[in-house]
Amino acid sequence: MLHWWTARDQIIWKIERAGTRRKLLQESPQTISDLTLQLPKDRLINTNPENVTSIAAPQSLLIKKTSGSLLLEFETAGTTP
What we know:
Elements: H1 4-9, E1 12-18, E2 21-38, E3 43-48, E4 53-57, E5 60-75
């Protein structure tokens, strides 16, 4: 089993933007648990798979356990340059 920090460092992140929507795509080659993300004030509207996330605190998202692909989709307050 890999160390948590090693698994975290192997994650690849990609961001896609379309108008007021943002998609955060995560590729995790190793299984990782309890990964917390600090989020902007955007509203989370979709996750795939649906059962991997929970709100940890205001503006924080806890990814309970994931490996492979994860999609987080957000709605922003407005468009950004």
